[in-house]
Amino acid sequence: DAGITQSPRHKVTETGTPVTLRCHQTENHRYMYWYRQDPGHGLRLIHYSYGVKDTDKGEVSDGYSVSRSKTEDFLLTLESATSSQTSVYFCAISESGTSPEQYFGPGTRLTVT
Amino acid sequence: GENVEQHPSTLSVQEGDSAVIKCTYSDSASNYFPWYKQELGKRPQLIIDIRSNVGEKKDQRIAVTLNKTAKHFSLHITETQPEDSAVYFCFTGTYKYIFGTGTRLKVLA
After folding, report:
1. What is the arrangement of strands in the sheet containing A73-78, beginning at the earlier edge strand?
2. A48 near A67, Cβ under 8 Å?
3. pLDDT tens track, chain A, 113 positions
4. What is the DSSP annotation of A37-75?
5. Which residue on chain B is closest to A56 by alpha carbon?
6. B24 and which of A1, A34, B9, B72 could share a cystine (Cβ 3.0–4.6 Å)?
7. Which A-chain residues 78-107 have CB contacts (< 8 A) with chain B?
8. What is the pLDDT of residue A1?
9. Which residues fall within 8 angstroms of residue A34, CB to CB, at 6 or more apart?
């Protein structure tokens, strides 16, 4: 597996609390992505980054924000968690636009009660 | 918006038989067509991919075919084995990639 880690791996939180998930890579890849995976929906893109401080929205970005201050770290923040954000969150990385292969982290299971 | 449809959603085959999963897409600018395999509780893993200038690519028992005119691409698994049982996802787009909703493949011994 590519050098991608996610933290925490599991989290239970209450509705209305802020939550930050971290993705860390050691591959020096330019692109980083956050997806959520829910039964019946496959993986859906939340946000992605194409460089330090450069980010863009995906198809399910409402309620989420991201930040990338270093090449190796991409943070996903739920400003005020809701039960609909209970999901498994995957981070992915890819080297460049001409090498678009994406490699996934191990995932974070988030439960919002 | 752009769309990717994947069929079938579930597929059961006898060990040794072939399996075919198909995806259709709407983004005519798509130029990269990978397939991912996800075992239960694990991360998606890239198993094969194809670029738009190629019609078919094979890697041992798996192959991907692409029809850009019709906007569909397919995963073919021959001589299926129990370890092929997993969920398979197609994936395409340009900068904002979209996954298919997945096919649960069961290989019956």
Report:
1. A4-7, A19-25, A73-78, A64-70
2. no
3. 669 999 999 999 999 999 999 999 999 999 999 999 998 778 999 999 999 999 999 989 999 999 999 999 999 999 999 999 999 999 999 987 667 889 999 999 999 99
4. EETTTEEEEEEEEEETTEEEE-TT-TTEEEEEEETTEEE
5. B96
6. B72
7. 90, 97, 100-107
8. 64
9. A21, A23, A45, A46, A47, A48, A58, A64, A66, A74, A76, A89, A90, A91
Give the pair of three-digit tokens for residue A45.
């893109």
| B6 contacts B26 by C-beta, under 8 angstroms | no
Q: What integer best gives the mean pLDDT of chain B? A: 93
pLDDT in tens, B34-46: 999 999 999 999 9
Please indicate if any CB of chain B lies within 8 Å of the CB of A62: no
Residues in chain A: 113
Distance CA B55, CA A65 (A): 39
| Interchain contact, A59 vs B96, CB within 8 Å | yes
| Joined tokens for residue A41 | 């929906």
CA-nearest of B67, B57, B61, B54 to B22 is B67
Measured distance CA(B86)–CA(B88) in Å, rounded: 6
CA torsion through residues B73, A104, A107, A77, sign: negative
